[in-house]
Amino acid sequence: MTTTGRFFCADAARTRGDSIVGTAPHGTAWVLIEYRGGWPADGFDGLDLEPGTKALVFAAARAARARVLLVRRHGRSVPQGGPPRWAVLRYDATGAHRQHWGTWGRDEDLAQIAPALTTPGEPSGRPVVLVCAHGLHDACCAVRGRPVARALSERRPDLVWECTHVGGDRFAANVVVVPDGVYYGNLDAGSAVTVVEEHLAGRIGAEHLRGYTDLFPPQQAAVAAVLDRFGPAGRHDYAVARTFRDDDGWRIRVTGRPPGPATADGEAGVEIAIDVDVRARRTPQRQLTCRGPATSSAVVYEAVSIRQG
Predict the structure, then answer these.
(1) Cβ neighbours for 70, distance < 8 A, ≥ 6 positions apart
(2) Residue where one domain finishes, among candidates 200, 229, 258
(3) 71 vs 247, which has greater pLDDT?
């Protein structure tokens, strides 16, 4: 993927071996707005919409702590049937995720998003697969994201959308499954198809997992360590039961039922408790995005021990 003489943050991150563990932004609600034209560098904020409607949507999303993403189907040259769509999606710990879908033709139609953010929505197990392909925000999102969007769209055209910035440019290609709230990174066309198909089959693995968005970074790292130790599992097969902060880091108890024989006596299907010690460290100053030469430090979360409680 490297082009001589040009800096690509995802190439640099892979060369350094940057960890993706614990890097999923926290949040449990998403607003998706289908926008078939060009995306501004700052996404929804940069759209030239009717000011009152735009302010209403922005305020409602901020109050609900919802992330607003522009979306489109892969391949804008392909004719799109029907009016553009919008959605409000919410994570639910029970797995009965809530979704509210609508359409818009005029800017003012987007005002429907505000009341949708204050009502539960309909329960649905149907996921949405988002691929960050926001090239004006970061070149790597386009260079690495669009081939992934193409590959996934060929397999799951009804589920897959390209989207604006989701965070973690240097981990491109990034895929987010919502409202499950699961972030994946460092994907290419082949690995993305495998990861998404496994996810849809209820098998989330650790290799490309950035984290679960309902958890905070140390908790994300703990769950990733459990998945790495015991193997892929469903989105709700494990839960964080307790988080204890000490001077050195965190001790996090994860409970659940590992797939297959996992307990000491080889009995499958029995709930166990796993204690994970997580530590944090800061990296040296580095250039972390393509868009500017400014450097910054990142926090890395590492599981230093894992044991059955």
Answers:
(1) 32, 33, 34, 35, 39, 43, 44, 47, 163, 164
(2) 200
(3) 71
